[in-house]
Write a structure and sequence with these properties.
Blueprint: H1 2-14, E1 21-23, E2 26-29, E3 38-41, H2 47-56, H3 60-66, H4 72-75, E4 90-92, E5 103-107, H5 133-139, H6 142-158, E6 163-165, H7 188-203, E7 208-214, E8 227-229, H8 232-239, H9 241-250, E9 254-257, E10 261-262, E11 265-266, H10 271-281, E12 287-290, H11 298-304, H12 314-326, H13 331-347, H14 362-376, E13 378-382, E14 393-397, H15 399-402, H16 422-428, E15 432-433, H17 435-447, H18 459-462, H19 474-483, E16 486-492, H20 503-507, H21 511-526, E17 530-536, E18 552-555, H22 563-572, E19 585-586, H23 607-611, E20 627-629, H24 638-643, E21 648-650, E22 661-671, E23 674-683, E24 692-698, E25 710-716, E26 725-733, E27 739-741, E28 746-748, E29 753-761, E30 764-772
Parallel strand pairs: 5-6, 6-7, 7-9, 8-10, 8-20, 9-12, 14-15, 14-16, 16-17, 17-18
Antiparallel strand pairs: 1-2, 2-3, 4-5, 10-11, 13-18, 19-21, 22-23, 23-26, 24-25, 24-29, 27-28, 29-30
Helix pairs in contact: 2-13, 5-14, 6-7, 6-14, 7-9, 14-22, 16-22, 19-21
Length: about 775
């Protein structure tokens, strides 16, 4: 910029009647006629031209410097020299000679993870804790998820963040994955369209996203070194498909490569995945960045198409310089990655002189959070119990009723201003909380005060907050039942980055929780009163063994900072539940085909493995597990349960409402390689509500091994009043019925008859029509 400024001054002196001059992509003019020079980005010049111009002026050291972030301090969210945004975990480094600014990258998928406190300032920089990804997928509402993304992106814009590191789009291969709460579903179609809606919402603000973790990052155990052994067909149909939809429907600014290997090669070093598939097959136009300290060979990463190494290390800088000098890193590969990074820089608000104000509308964002969390909560059971009718005094049992969990730990955590508990939410809805039950919680909390301290700082990244559960006596429960009108038991779970879940006291209820449900139901049912269970969880837990006991079960998930209000809105009937399950709840853990090849001990990741992975040679790594075989192939989630004809506790796509819906006339035609399906949905109940319509496709008499049925499209109605109707139209490309033919390494379509099925869940098919292709 300095040379451009001098050129401007020369012209300005020589041309007193000067109006405007453009140099190096910048415009210079005396806008006010007062002799003062204004400098601004000239957006009339195409970005590709500006990128080429900037590239031509860069030295090789400047180019290689741009390929890596600013180092360990940024990864820890630290600010040095008084510049930066505390808590932002990465950067694209500046190039001062060209006037290119620092680009800030921040977690995460459920809201920004920046530090709320700053040295020398009295104010706080709180961010909104939005609902977890699994809950948002449970809305099956792309328009609503787009609104959440728009709010999240606006918050990033106002806090000076240029790229949000999210959303997460990995498949729920197994219930134990510690980061399942960040991800959307066991199904790639639901994952893809919900993910694309989130990306489009965020990026509508001129803020980028980094869709992660590409690809097959389905466990946290030994994630930095684990080798996923998986078939090409399973990759294409299951693990890549959601990312493919997101790329084609939203064209995100960036994609984040995952830590793991796939079939022997780190994803961040795989030219097949990052160039052949992502860019050549799908048309991805953005940059690929590594996960933090991901990969092993910096030279191989750049050559493969992993453009940005985060957070960047001294070793990587030295390696890249030497590789270029030795001829092991081609200037063409360097320039290709640099151009992708420059394109993002030029597209950012930083290059448009946007002046962020650090004042997002947190109140408006909280309203969106409350609404979206309620819409994603799933009513699993209801025997004339909900919405709450005449009950006034409500007994809240279980620690989590008073200490609601907003979301998981790790990079998916958020520093929010407040957390609304279920207790507060019910109070806000006008209910009275039973004093005896509340007193028992307070006494328990005081007796275990040290265990009720939430981890803070870096520790909070990897240590889930899990306070001990209360033990109730039969006499205490009998007294509470006599005093109150309704019991609500909350079961809470927390998990997160760095470790996977386990069976005992996690997937399975603890003995204390089992006894709490059984004894509460006994005490309340004895006096003719109802019991509801609220599940404040981030992933699947076992339900089959105990679900017959309570009268109602609400899967509240983790709804962000407004979760207690959202749950109360459903329980009270202010909002009619319309969430549907994005994952299957099995009868037994062993029923999952993936269970035979998933780590069962939940061994946490060594922090040193994460912090210094980029500094350790492959030969020096001592993995505790070095591979995972995806022996189940394409049979993940409902695809397996349906094919094996296994009973489930709650099927994929399932969810109850306070009203009823009729699926009317169903018509299907095929025209111009597109399947057109229409159906009219009618609310035949007595309350306003929404319904999710799911389209599954089956191939009778198939000649290949394929699932019994697969989700191919979905839609959610608007709120329908009693007797209200809405026509839903689906357009499914015939090509989406293809399977991956490993003999040809390409998609193939079986000819013959297909069954187009319309359902309220995967196991509640209302209509089906056969077509011939």
């Amino acid at each position: 910029m300095k040379s451009a400024y001098l050129d401007f001054e020369k012209d300005y002196v020589e041309k007193k009647d000067f109006k405007e001059i453009t140099v190096d992509g910048y415009a210079f003019m005396d806008r006010n006629g007062n002799g003062k020079l204004d400098i601004y980005e000239d957006d009339r010049i195409p970005i590709d031209e500006r990128v080429e111009d900037a590239l031509s002026k860069m030295t090789i050291k400047e180019k290689i410097h741009l390929l890596k972030g600013s180092g360990l301090a940024s990864a820890m969210g630290r600010v040095e020299s008084g510049e930066g945004i505390p808590g932002a975990v990465g950067t694209i480094v500046p190039t001062p000679g060209l006037g290119l600014p620092t680009i800030y990258l921040s977690d995460g998928p459920a809201g920004l993870r920046i530090e709320p406190k700053r040295e020398g300032e009295d104010r706080t920089y709180y961010c909104t804790a939005f609902p977890i990804g699994t809950l948002l997928a449970s809305t099956w509402n792309t328009d609503l998820v787009n609104q959440v993304g728009t709010a999240m992106g606006n918050e990033a814009l106002e806090y000076g963040i240029d790229v949000i590191l999210g959303p997460g789009a990995n498949i729920h291969r197994h219930p134990f994955c510690g980061r399942n709460f960040e991800y959307f579903s066991e199904d790639p179609v639901l994952t893809g369209y919900i993910g694309a809606a989130m990306v489009n919402g965020i990026e509508s603000n001129g803020v980028g996203t980094s869709v992660k973790h590409f690809v097959a990052n389905n466990q946290e155990t030994n994630r930095n070194f684990n080798d996923v052994i998986v078939s090409e067909r399973a990759m294409r149909e299951i693990y890549l498909k959601g990312f493919e939809i997101i790329v084609k429907e939203s064209q995100p600014w960036t994609v984040m490569s995952s830590y793991n290997k796939v079939n022997g090669t780190y994803t961040s070093e795989s030219r097949n995945l990052l160039t052949n598939v992502l860019r050549d097959d799908w048309g991805f136009e953005g940059l690929v960045m590594s996960d933090w300290f991901g990969g092993n060979d910096a030279t191989a990463m750049i050559s493969a198409g992993n453009d940005l190494l985060e957070p960047g290390t001294r070793k990587q800088w030295k390696t890249l310089l030497e590789a270029y000098k030795d001829g092991n890193l081609a200037i063409e590969d360097i320039d290709t990655s640099v151009k992708r990074i420059l394109k993002l820089v030029f597209e950012s608000k930083k290059m448009q002189n946007y002046r962020y104000g650090n004042n997002p509308d947190l109140k408006a964002h909280a309203d969106i959070t409350r609404l979206s969390a309620a819409e994603g909560m799933v009513l699993l059971k209801n025997e004339n119990t909900l919405p709450i009718q005449k009950a006034k005094n409500i007994a809240l049992l279980g620690v989590t009723s008073y200490d609601f969990i907003t979301g998981g730990t790790g990079s998916g955590d958020v520093n929010e201003a407040y957390i609304v508990s279920l207790e507060e939410g019910l109070k806000n809805s006008g209910y009275e909380i039973n004093a005896t039950a509340k007193g028992l919680f307070e006494n328990h909390k005081e007796a275990h005060s040290k265990e009720f301290v939430r981890p803070e700082g870096f520790k909070a990244m990897f240590v889930p907050y899990i306070p001990p559960q209360i033990v109730y006596t039969s006499d205490q429960l009998d007294q509470i039942a006599a005093e109150s009108d309704l019991a609500i038991i909350t079961i809470g779970r927390n998990a997160g980055e760095g470790g996977d879940r386990v069976a005992v006291d996690d997937f399975l209820l603890s003995t204390t929780e089992q006894e709490m449900i059984m004894n509460t139901c006994n005490s309340f049912h004895r006096v003719g009163k109802k019991v509801a269970v609220v599940m404040n969880v981030g992933g699947v837990i076992e339900t089959f063994s105990w679900k017959a006991q309570p009268d109602a079960i609400l899967l509240a998930w983790q709804g962000g900072q407004e979760g207690g209000n959202s749950a109360a809105d459903i329980l009270s009937g202010k909002i009619n539940p319309s969430g549907k399950l994005p994952i299957t709840f099995p009868v037994n853990l062993e029923d999952h085909a993936s269970n035979m090849n998933f780590p069962q001990d939940g061994e946490p990741m060594k922090i040193t493995d994460m912090l210094f992975a980029g500094e350790v040679d492959e030969a020096d790594k001592v993995p505790n597990r070095d591979y995972t075989i995806y022996e189940e192939g394409i049979y993940v989630g409902y695809r397996h349960f349906d094919k094996a004809r296994l009973d489930v506790s709650y099927p994929f796509g399932y969810g109850l409402s306070y009203t009823d819906f009729e699926f009317g006339n169903f018509e299907v035609t095929v025209e111009n390689d597109t399947i057109n399906a229409t159906v009219t949905i009618k609310n035949i109940g007595d309350k306003s509500g929404k319904e999710v319509v799911q389209v599954y496709v089956s191939k009778p008499n198939t000649t290949i091994d394929r699932p019994s049925q697969e989700l191919k499209a979905f839609s959610k109605t608007k709120a329908l009043e009693p007797n209200g109707t809405q026509e839903i139209v689906f357009r499914i490309p015939v090509s989406e019925l293809s399977y991956w033919d490993e003999n040809r390494s390409d998609w193939a379509l079986e000819t013959g008859n297909y069954s187009i099925r319309l359902g309220a869940s995967s196991r509640d098919v209302r209509s089906k029509i056969e077509i011939n292709l």
